[in-house]
């Protein structure tokens, strides 16, 4: 038997059903016996939504009112009545089992499953299997319209069914017409058989992913804006009703190994992916989640792995994975098992532990643990920040993809050799950052995060011709992503004024952008980490007193420009000024290399990190060709610092800190040998910093 089901929400109707997260307000159904071709009673039930504010389209199409819905039963009671009435009708027809049949997949996948998941009650098993009438109709009548273009009305017209929609109540006509279509498909000329129902997965299945797998780009999406503590199960719940591939949730990590609020999700087919895209800006708790298309290559980069050890660890299916961070380097498997205790037994004992190590076998302090059920995992999470040895241990929910990412990050990073290849920042061709009080710049605030330089040029319109070469500066945040701000250098203050007047609060994509006129000095303050607001200028931290140690003088030198195609120079405008000019003359020059193709850049897409301040020259790095380094060395006859910016400053040290404690603090990192100071000619004032008990400058 089939139970023909039709429903409507308080919002969008038709192809956009469920895309606006509006609640279900109507269910209409009728039982159909496929063998005897008899039907049961037609039932119509209104559903009381939490929000009774109906959209204009809903009121126009359905004729329902908020007053009428206010007297209805809530969804959980309606679904109970549905099960009872269907069972009663089946007994009358002499049947015991049934499968749902709906007009398309939206009612089941995009409305019922997401709404019941948010309201925390379970759907009965019958809602995990259903027939899509549109697909069955196209199978029976291949010459009919494509499945995505089918509607109840077009199917009825194709069969020549003379039904008048205006004669029946909303929902009743749809169910009666669907029943008539089914009987036509069962007629002697067609003899259609319903054999392969659509299925909805009960739960998300974890599992490993190999880099050798082929992932169809039409099945992958990127979810952005996730709470940092969300797990793969939380993401699967957000996409409830859609079938995610096994091991198809990959939480993305930032450069520090922490979650960045993004995830790549792989679905079983492109149809499920397209439905997932309709959940753009749906909510997870109080946060809305952005959903975009992604590629299979991106998914494999995050979730794919090659380690046999990881594959064996993740081969135990349906396990809950917990990540432990901050373990003592001397911790053993027995120590971890003892820390977790008997109340949260690890799956397989020692086999359920995976320690993360560097390529040379040194521990990183991270480990992953498998638990067979949610109860054991919850008991383990209660030990968050408890002490093991002399350290507190952090515990988080994790995923198979996160295991792969963490292992890939540590295992693919080569150990730093004793004499590394010089790593030199990529710098665009020489240009001048505006300075002074002339207000010939504009600041764009509130840009869409997806906006690029092309979008800004289009936004500027005719004023694009008045932009100085390399005059567009995109401001990135600490994670290297657009911050929503940009600065533009115009050819004159008048041009900047005209742009600010013309483009202020003009729309770019779906956001309005604020445009303010500013000076080169104000622009530099913001780009170097300061703030510019109604209260005036707040200088960047690198410009504040006592934050620029004299050792910076080692990097302040004149530019080195050999007669090669590669350009070598030091951009003075982007580095803090030194307080010890007497040391500059003796200091060796820093060597900066950029490839020839960099000279073709029209606009400067510069990554400035306002907080904390970081020299823009330390953003992207490539290895300088040996010839370029050798040419610079020959020209200056002085030792070359392999990597500008190799100094770090430590503040807040205990007064009794010695060299041993500092080296222990930086365990795991390659630091310069004792005689490395010979490469930098430091002034006496600079050397005093190295010997101070409170502050240290480390190479």
From TrEMBL:
One of its GO terms (biological process) is mRNA processing. Its main location: nucleus. The keyword RNA-binding applies. It is found in: Nucleus. InterPro entries: ESRP, Nucleotide-bd_a/b_plait_sf, RBD_domain_sf, RNaseH-like_sf, RNaseH_sf, RRM_dom. Residues 320-400 form the RRM domain. This is Epithelial splicing regulatory protein 2.
């Amino acid at each position: 038997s089939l139970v023909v089901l039709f429903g409507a929400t308080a919002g969008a109707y038709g192809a956009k059903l469920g895309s606006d997260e509006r609640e279900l307000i109507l269910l209409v159904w009728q039982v159909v016996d496929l063998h005897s071709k008899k039907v049961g009673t037609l039932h119509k039930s209104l559903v009381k939504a939490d929000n009774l504010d109906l959209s204009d389209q809903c009121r126009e199409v359905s004729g329902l009112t908020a007053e009428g819905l206010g007297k209805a039963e809530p969804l959980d009671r309606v679904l109970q009545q549905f099960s009872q009435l269907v069972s009663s009708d089946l007994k009358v027809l002499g049947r015991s089992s049934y499968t749902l049949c709906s007009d398309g997949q939206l009612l089941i996948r995009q409305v019922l499953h997401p709404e019941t998941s948010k309201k925390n009650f379970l759907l009965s098993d019958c809602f995990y299997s259903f027939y899509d009438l549109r697909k069955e109709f196209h199978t029976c009548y291949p010459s009919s319209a494509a499945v995505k273009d089918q509607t109840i009305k077009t199917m009825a017209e194709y069969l020549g069914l003379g039904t008048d929609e205006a004669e029946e109540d909303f929902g009743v006509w749809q169910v009666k017409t669907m029943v008539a279509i089914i009987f036509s498909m069962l007629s002697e000329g067609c003899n259609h058989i319903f054999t392969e129902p659509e299925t909805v997965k009960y739960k998300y299945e974890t599992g490993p992913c190999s880099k050798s797998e082929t992932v169809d780009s039409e099945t992958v999406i990127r979810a952005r804006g996730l709470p940092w503590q969300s797990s793969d199960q939380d993401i699967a719940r957000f996409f409830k009703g859609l079938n995610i591939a096994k091991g198809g949730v990959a939480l993305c990590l930032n450069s520090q190994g922490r979650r960045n609020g993004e995830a790549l999700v792989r679905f079983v087919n492109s149809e499920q992916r397209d439905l997932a895209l309709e959940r753009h800006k749906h909510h997870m708790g109080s946060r809305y989640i952005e959903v975009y298309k992604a590629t299979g290559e991106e998914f494999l980069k995050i979730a794919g792995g090659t380690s046999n050890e990881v594959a064996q660890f993740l081969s135990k299916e349906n396990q809950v994975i917990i990540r432990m961070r901050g373990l003592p380097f001397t911790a053993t498997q027995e120590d971890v098992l003892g820390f977790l205790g008997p109340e949260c037994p690890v799956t397989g004992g020692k086999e359920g532990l995976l320690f993360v190590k560097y390529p040379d076998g040194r521990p990183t302090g991270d480990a992953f643990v498998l638990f067979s059920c949610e109860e054991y995992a919850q008991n383990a999470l209660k030990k968050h920040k408890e002490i093991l040895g002399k350290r507190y241990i952090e515990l988080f929910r994790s995923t198979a993809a996160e295991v792969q990412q963490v292992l890939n990050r540590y295992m693919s990073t080569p150990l730093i050799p004793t004499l590394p290849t010089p790593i030199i920042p990529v710098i665009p061709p020489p240009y001048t950052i505006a300075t002074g009080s002339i207000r010939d710049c504009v600041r764009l605030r509130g840009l869409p995060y997806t906006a690029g330089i092309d979008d800004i040029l289009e936004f500027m319109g005719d004023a694009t011709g008045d932009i100085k070469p390399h005059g567009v500066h995109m401001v990135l945040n600490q994670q290297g992503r657009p911050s929503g701000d940009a600065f533009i250098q115009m050819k004159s203050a008048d041009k900047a004024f005209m742009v600010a007047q013309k483009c202020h609060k003009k729309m770019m994509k779906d956001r309005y952008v604020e445009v303010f006129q500013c000076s080169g000095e104000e622009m530099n303050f913001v780009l170097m980490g300061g703030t510019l607001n109604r209260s005036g200028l707040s200088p960047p931290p690198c410009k504040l007193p006592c934050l620029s140690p004299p050792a910076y003088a080692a990097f302040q030198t004149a530019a080195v420009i050999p007669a090669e195609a590669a350009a070598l120079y030091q951009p003075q405008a982007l580095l803090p000024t030194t307080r010890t000019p007497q040391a500059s003359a003796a200091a060796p020059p820093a060597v900066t290399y950029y490839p020839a193709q960099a000279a073709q850049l029209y606009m400067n897409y510069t990554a400035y990190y306002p907080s904390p301040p970081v020299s823009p020259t330390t953003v992207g790095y490539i290895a300088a060709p040996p010839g370029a380094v050798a040419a610079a060395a020959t020209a200056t006859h002085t030792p070359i610092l392999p990597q500008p910016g190799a100094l770090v400053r430590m503040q807040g040290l205990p007064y009794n800190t010695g060299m041993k404690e500092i080296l222990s603090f930086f365990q795991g990192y390659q630091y310069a040998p004792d005689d490395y100071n010979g490469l930098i000619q430091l002034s006496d004032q600079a050397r005093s910093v190295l010997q101070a008990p409170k502050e240290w400058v480390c190479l």
